[in-house]
Design a protein that fits this description.
Length: 544
């Protein structure tokens, strides 16, 4: 039911009230309706902390962003902190609602209160417009407004049910980088396809970076021309009052990590990550060739050679599937990574991540894709369930399972024989995790493991040191990254060389020695007969 608050508000034009326009006002209305920049500069007012209610004097970067909003259907904007991105969008939405009929605007943020704050700014702008530029108000609440031209706006939090079932012409998501990955997954899966399918709908995302999450994914795809979004980046020095002294002050206030994220707008993860920030930023995100029910495929299996009867002969040992298992009731996900290991750098070619798959059904998924990838070797992490490898081996009769023997000195990959206890997989204890983390760090930072999956990269960016070990930062997950930790441990095993015929440690050592030799090539040394003797060794004179 509509509130009657606006009836008592002398700043608003009530519904059903007609006013007389002067010829000048008619011309002014027409000019405002066709030019949002003119309208905002001349008529929009905002609250300044220092000066109270003042006209909105747009900076050049704000004009650029408003023009981009006006001229394009999909916009993604990346702003440093304190650059007025929310107020800029609110001003454009004010114009959009007043001068377009029967439009619906959805204002979304991580929390409903944050979305209502944007609505309050929009409402203040409307209240301080001349009456001849206003529309009659039908509804005026903290979370929704409606005008006589049948245009309306409402607020909601970003959730799967936030705007489900509602017809929206303009979807605005503020601080998209703050939305947790789990919430973003549900929201974009449930809502985004419907909104983006419209022929005239507008979608705008704005944020400061906060890790390698969905906003980062949208930004990278926009820069590469993949998703149809126009990327608009605003740097801090584009604000007339934000010079190097301001930036230095922000750095002292925020600390280095937050300064790089919120002022320089680097896509960084948490502090103290296992993988260095520079290495994470070099990871090249790719769009899956195929994606369904948690499975994402980035590279088709290499089938090997063509046989005498023109059949494809599988290339054994070319792929490894590393499996982590969860309970399948939400929360943590069952995950696996398929890694191509017959060449260096190794390459993650497919990823599975699903928090609802039952451990009873999970082996069938693993079996299906392991068969597709040339009967890949499968290494299963056993901490949460030994049921998965048991079903895989005994019921599905899959042979290429990697066996692990437990000895007093630790766990070792074997061929399934030996005097020690042998199991269908590895138990992640402190030692295996420490080795796995160390090897994963080396592989990634040395460029010997290519990772292109958004979930994997996002989890790596929040996989941090805590009390002598590594785990997901608070509020994040590490299901996919743990499959890569287990893979790192696998590459440290002597038996891994026999499985793949690739010795990564030798490869890295040889490259390092080659680089050292190139850097220390002797030049310009000769013996002039006056060599010095130092500690019993003869040193020659250098003549450049």
């Amino acid at each position: 039911m509509a509130t009657s608050f606006y009836n008592a508000n002398p700043l608003l034009k009530a519904a059903g009230v007609s006013i007389s326009y002067t010829p000048e006002q008619v011309q002014e209305y027409i000019k405002c309706s066709s030019d949002p920049i003119y309208f905002i500069k001349k008529y929009i007012k905002i609250i300044s902390l220092d000066h109270g209610l003042i006209p909105f004097a747009l900076y050049d970067y704000q004009v650029k962003f408003i023009n981009a909003l006006h001229d394009n259907r999909r916009i993604i904007g990346m702003f440093p902190r304190q650059h007025g991105k929310t107020t800029t969008v609110a001003a454009y939405l004010c114009w959009y609602l007043l001068f377009n009929e029967a439009k619906t605007v959805a204002i979304l943020a991580n929390k409903a209160a944050a979305a209502r704050e944007i609505m309050s700014r929009l409402q203040l702008m409307v209240e301080h417009l001349p009456k001849f530029l206003q529309q009659g108000v039908i509804e005026w609440n903290k979370g929704s407004i409606e005008f006589e031209n049948n245009s309306k706006a409402f607020t909601a939090a970003t959730s799967s049910s936030g705007i489900r079932g509602k017809s929206v012409n303009f979807l605005y998501i503020d601080e998209a980088g703050i939305i947790p990955n789990t919430v973003a997954d549900e929201f974009f899966t449930a809502t985004y396809p419907t909104i983006s399918a419209g022929q005239t709908t507008k979608i705008a995302l704005t944020s400061t970076p906060l890790g390698l999450n969905h906003f980062w994914k949208f930004w990278v795809e926009a820069e590469n021309g993949i998703n149809g979004f126009v990327p608009i980046r605003v740097d801090y020095w584009e604000h007339p009052d934000h010079d190097e002294a301001w930036a230095l002050q922000q750095k002292q206030l925020l600390g280095d990590l937050k300064y790089r994220q919120e002022v320089l707008m680097d896509f960084l993860g948490s502090a103290a990550t296992l993988i260095s920030a520079d290495a994470i930023q070099k990871m090249a995100l790719k769009t899956p060739m195929y994606s369904n029910d948690g499975f994402k495929l980035y590279e088709l299996p290499e089938k090997g050679t063509l046989g005498e009867n023109k059949e494809w002969i599988k290339k054994p040992g070319s792929y490894v599937v590393v499996v982590d298992t969860a309970s399948g009731v939400g929360g943590d996900s069952s995950a696996f990574s398929i890694v191509r290991v017959d060449q260096v750098p190794y390459k993650v070619v497919a990823v599975y991540n699903n928090n609802m798959i039952s451990p009873l059904l999970y082996p069938n998924i693993i079996h299906k894709w392991a068969k597709q990838y040339n009967d890949a070797w499968v290494l299963v992490e056993l901490n949460k369930s030994e049921q998965v490898p048991y079903i895989l081996h005994n019921e599905l009769e899959y042979e290429n399972i990697i066996y692990v023997s437990r000895t007093p000195k630790g766990q070792f990959v074997t061929g399934g024989f030996g005097g020690h206890a042998t199991q269908y997989g590895v138990l992640t204890d402190k030692k295996t995790k420490r080795i796995g983390c160390s090897m994963l760090k080396t592989l990634v930072e040395e460029g010997k493991l290519e990772i292109c999956d958004q979930t994997a990269i996002s989890e790596i960016s929040t996989f941090i040191e805590n009390k002598g070990s590594y785990a997901a930062d608070d509020g994040y997950h590490d299901d996919v990254v743990m499959t890569l930790v287990i893979f790192g441990w696998l590459t440290s095993q002597p038996y891994f060389k026999e499985l793949t015929d690739v010795d990564i440690r030798t490869n890295i050592y040889n490259l390092r020695m080659e680089a050292i030799e190139q850097e220390t090539v002797p030049i310009g040394f000769y013996n002039d007969g006056n060599a010095d003797v130092v500690n019993g060794e003869q040193w020659v004179t250098y003549n450049p």
